[in-house]
Design a protein that fits this description.
By secondary structure, the chain is mainly beta. The protein is built from 5 helices and 24 strands. It has helices at 93-96, 197-201, 316-321, 364-367, 373-385; strands at 2-4, 26-33, 39-45, 51-52, 57-60, 69-72, 77-78, 82-88, 101-103, 116-119, 125-129, 140-144, 160-164, 216-231, 237-241, 254-258, 269-280, 283-287, 293-298, 305-306, 328-329, 336-345, 350-357, 386-390. The protein has a 7-stranded mixed β-sheet, with no helix packed on it. A 5-stranded mixed β-barrel has the order 14-15-16-18-17. Strands 6-5-10-11 form a 4-stranded antiparallel β-sheet, with no helix packed on it. Strand 22 and strand 23 (350-357) form a beta hairpin. The radius of gyration is 25 Å and the shape is globular.
C-alpha cells in the first residue's frame, strides 16, 4: 500500500519528462536507519530538468546476501534540483510528514546490514549504500556530501556524513552539506600535545579522565599510535597500539578508536587521532567526530601480546582489563576452557564463542539451589572468568570465523568431522 504527502510530488507522466539518461542525474542522497520503523531513503535529481524514474527500482539486499528485494519506481519523477523521499509507512510523523511516498514494501524495512541500491531496467546497480556482508549503517543517518552527489556502483564511506540515530536533518531537501576539511593533526595550527594511551586507560577499571555520567569528556584529546586491527562490524573503528611501552603492567597499551564509519586503514598504519574519551559498556574508547584521524606513516603491524595473570590481579576480569584494546594471544598456560561453542548475536549479526579461565562456567543452579547465596556467588565468579570471542562481521554459512579449519576432515568417512569444538578442553 502506498500513500503520498501533499507537500511533495506524485509523479505524472507528461511529455516534458526526460525518458533517458536518468542514471547520470539521479542518485541516493540520504539514508535513515532510526529507531523502530523510522526507515527512509531519499533519491535526488541534481539536473536542471525533471527526470523520470521509469524502469528503475529501489532495492534492498537482506543481510547483504547478494539478492535483491525491489520496489518499482516507474510512474515517479523527480523535479529539477529536488528529491523524493520513500519511507516506511509505520515510521513516526517526523518522517512521514516529510516523505513523498510511504509504503509497507519490505525494501523500506531495512537494518544496518541491508545494502540499499538503485537498480536500472536491467537490474544493474546504478548507485549503492552499504557493503554485502558488512554492518555499515545501524542506528544512524547517512547524508551524501555535496561534492559527491553522483551515483557510484560501490559504497564509498567518505562520500557520506554520519549523523545520529533519528537525526532527520536535511531530509526532503537537496542537501549542500560539505565534507569537513581534512584533519591535519594540528591544534590551532601548531603541533598538538599528545595524551598517551596508557594514561587514558589508567590502572583501574575505567579511565581516570571519566568522573561520572555521561561517561564522556567534553574536552577532546590528541592521541597517536599504530593500528593493530580494523573493525567493520557493529563497532566501526580501529584499535590503536601505543608507539612506546610504559612498562607498567597495570596500564593497557591499546585503545579502541570509534570512528562511527568503516575507516580506510589497515594494521601497521601510524595515525594521529582527536576525540573525546568515553566509557561505553565498560570499554574505554576514543570517540571521533567525522574523520578526525590522519595517517602519518606505516610500520610493522603490532604483534599479539600473550595474556598473563599477575599476583596483583584479584580476578581474571581484572587481568583482561590490563589488556583492554590490545591485540592479544591466549597461551596454553592461561588454561582457557570452552564454555559455549557457538552463539549468534541477532542484534549485532555476528558469531561468538565463550571461554572461561581455568574451568568451565557451570550454570549457577546446577550445583546449588536457585536464588541461594552459593548460586549467586557462582554467577558472580562465572562473570569474572568469562571471555567472549566474537567475529567482527557475519560469517558465511557453514563457517565458524574463530575456527577456520572446522569441519574439514572426516577420516573414517562416517559423516562426522573429527575436529569439532568441545566444551571444557584446555585450548592449545
Amino acid at each position: 500500500m502506498t500513500s503520498t504527502n501533499k507537500k511533495q510530488w506524485l509523479a505524472l507522466v507528461i511529455s516534458s519528462i526526460l525518458s533517458g539518461g536518468a542514471s547520470a542525474e539521479i542518485f541516493l542522497s540520504q539514508y535513515v536507519e532510526g529507531s523502530g520503523y523510522n526507515k527512509a531513503i531519499e533519491i535526488a535529481n541534481s539536473s536542471d530538468q525533471e527526470v523520470s524514474l521509469s524502469g528503475y527500482q529501489l532495492a534492498k539486499s537482506p543481510n547483504g546476501n547478494g539478492t535483491w528485494n525491489t520496489l518499482d519506481l516507474s510512474g515517479y519523477t523527480i523535479p529539477a534540483q529536488s528529491v523524493l523521499v520513500f519511507a516506511n509507512a509505520k515510521a513516526s510523523a517526523a518522517v512521514t510528514d516529510i516523505a513523498t511516498v510511504t509504503t509497507a514494501n519490505q525494501v523500506l524495512n531495512f537494518n544496518g546490514d541491508d545494502p540499499i541500491a538503485l537498480l536500472d531496467n536491467q537490474e544493474q546497480v546504478v548507485d549503492m549504500i552499504g557493503v554485502m556482508g558488512e554492518l555499515f549503517g545501524q542506528n544512524k543517518t547517512l547524508v551524501r556530501y555535496q561534492p559527491y552527489q553522483q551515483p557510484s556502483v560501490s559504497y564509498q564511506p567518505k562520500q557520506w556524513a554520519t549523523l545520529a540515530s533519528d537525526d532527520f536533518s536535511g531530509l526532503g531537501q537537496l542537501d549542500t552539506l560539505l565534507p569537513p576539511q581534512a584533519f591535519q593533526c594540528l591544534d590551532n595550527g601548531i603541533e598538538p600535545t599528545f595524551t598517551s594511551i596508557q594514561s587514558i586507560q589508567g590502572e583501574g577499571s575505567h579511565s581516570p579522565y571519566i568522573s561520572g555520567y555521561p561517561y564522556i569528556t567534553t574536552e577532546q584529546y590528541f592521541v597517536q599510535g599504530v593500528v593493530s586491527a580494523v573493525t567493520t562490524g557493529v563497532n566501526q573503528g580501529f584499535y590503536l597500539q601505543a608507539l612506546e611501552d610504559d612498562h607498567n603492567p597495570l596500564t593497557s597499551n591499546g585503545l579502541f578508536i570509534y570512528t562511527q564509519a568503516n575507516p580506510e586503514l589497515s594494521a601497521g598504519d601510524v595515525v594521529c587521532v582527536r576525540g573525546n574519551i568515553q566509557e561505553y559498556y565498560s570499554q574505554t574508547q576514543l570517540k571521533l567526530n567525522e574523520r578526525d584521524w590522519h595517517k602519518l606513516g606505516q610500520q610493522a603491524a603490532p604483534a599479539a601480546t600473550a595474556v598473563e595473570v599477575i599476583d596483583s590481579d584479584e580476578s581474571f576480569e581484572q587481568t583482561l582489563e590490563r589488556y583492554e584494546g590490545m591485540l592479544v594471544s591466549l597461551p596454553q598456560a592461561l588454561d582457557m576452557r570452552v564454555s559455549r561453542t557457538f552463539g549468534y548475536d541477532y542484534s549485532a549479526r555476528r558469531n561468538n564463542m565463550v571461554l572461561a579461565h581455568e574451568r568451565v562456567n557451570l550454570h549457577p543452579n546446577q550445583q546449588y539451589a536457585a536464588g541461594s547465596s552459593e548460586a549467586k556467588a557462582q554467577s558472580e565468579d562465572n562473570a569474572q572468568r568469562r571471555l567472549y570471542v566474537e567475529s567482527v562481521s557475519p560469517a558465511a554459512n557453514g563457517e565458524i570465523p574463530y575456527y577456520p579449519e572446522f569441519g574439514r576432515s572426516d577420516i573414517d568417512q562416517d559423516g562426522s568431522t573429527e575436529d569439532y569444538v568441545r566444551i571444557n578442553p584446555c585450548l592449545a
